[in-house]
Amino acid sequence: MLDVKLIRENPEKVKAGVAKKKVDPKLVDKFLRLDEEWRVKTKALDDLAAEQNAISREMGQNQSQDLLSKAQLLKQRITDIEAERDVLSSKRDDILNKLPNLPFDDVPLGKDESENKILREVGKKKNFKFKPKDYLTIAEKLGIVNVKKATEIAGSRFGYLMGDAALLEFALVRLAFDTLVKERFTPVVPPVMITPTVYREMGRLAADQKEDKYYLPKDELYLVGSAEHTIGPLGRGEVFEASSLPKRFVGFSTCFRREAGSYGKDTKGILRVHQFDKVEMYSFVDPENSEREHKFLLSMQEKLVSALELPYRVVEICTGDMGWTDARQFDVETWMPGQGEAGEYRETHSCSNTTDFQTRGINAKYKTKDGKKEFLYALNATGFAIGRILIAIIENYQTEDGGVEVPKVLRDYLGKDKIE
Question: By three-state DSSP, how is residue 109 classified?
Fold first, then answer.
């Protein structure tokens, strides 16, 4: 959630920021009106509480009927105003939940993904002596991905990873963990379910995000869309020492998404599915070092993709395309030669600085050098989204005979040089 103090003291900045993310700035005015009413009710309750204390002290010396009647009337008045304030508080929080994190001032302005900014392209695209096939054609022939049977069992947007594809998944997980643990990341296998209260605190039920989540009403639990969603709450209600920062985690989990809003997009195969596995990085830092940590997380993503010797590009996401909780977002898009007519870059990684938007919700703080408790900044970044990186490997390492070479860095994990 946004800092209420910031909204009160600099509403024009907040209006400009939410407008960049295509949210109606009039919501800020509506919030301020409700907030003012809420503050009036809160002040009235404080005054009545002081009056109630004074009467209680007086009644300790004099139990007159007048004082008893006055105390009863005062108690009822407090009850009535508390109810009014609770209604205002609920309306106020509802609007606060509709305001996204503000993008940094230097984030590229833009309405959608067409206005994202390409920062660099890295790696050499392979010059095939044959027309490259798409991954699904290759994988189905090799028997390592079975979408047909998954559709029969679970419906559309599911797939089985079979044989060497399953082994490749765990090779990728080991590569990511072996690389990141050396960089002071604590390995985590987090829960894949989360309560509505904590999910809301993480900013992940706001606006249309809720439509993309799977909810189990009988148990009052959501299935997570990323390990980020349950790694972040490790800091819930905690106060870290400044000397312990940055505090880094790398988690592995299965993720669940409805893919709401993606009707007709990538309906076949394993690129855009309802269930997938992912390695995720998450960092808590002090505000001063958040941008440095953001670049570090991005460098870890590039290190992992480069280890696989896959061509990729780094993209800075514009205001109209970035995530709800993000103040700045980078994506890594990996080259997939079997996509489209002549190959395409497709998103495989995202990397976000969420500032104090999530930590304010979960009340995660650190102790400054002068002893003050301030909100941490939090960042998250994809290590490997398994399905998507498998696609990139299959398409970039395909051979003319229909096999797939195993990237050198994965050969010891997999125990072979080629899938055939």
Answer: coil
Same domain for 34 and 166? no
Residue of 385, 139, 263 lying closest to 150 (CA atoms): 139
Instruction: Please state, in angstroms and rounded to a whole number, the distance separating the CA atoms of residues 304 and 300.
Output: 6
Examine the domain organization and report whether 224 and 294 are in the same domain: yes
Within a domain: 108: no
Q: Is residue 105 part of a domain?
A: no
pLDDT digit string (tens) for 210-223? 899 999 999 999 99
> Domain holding 136: CATH number?
3.30.930.10
Residue 197 and residue 140 share a domain: yes
Residues 250, 332 within the same domain = yes
In a shared domain, residues 89 and 137: no
pLDDT of 268 over the 90 cut: no
Query: What is this structure's pTM?
Result: 0.93
What are the pLDDT digits (tens) for 347-386? 999 999 999 999 999 999 999 988 999 999 999 999 999 9
- Check whether residue 140 and residue 64 sit in a common domain: no
**Strand 365-367 relative to strand 239-241: parallel, antiparallel, unpaired?**
parallel
Q: For position 84, which CATH number holds?
A: 1.10.287.40
Q: What is the domain range of residue 290?
A: 113-419
Pairing of strands 214-216, 221-223: antiparallel
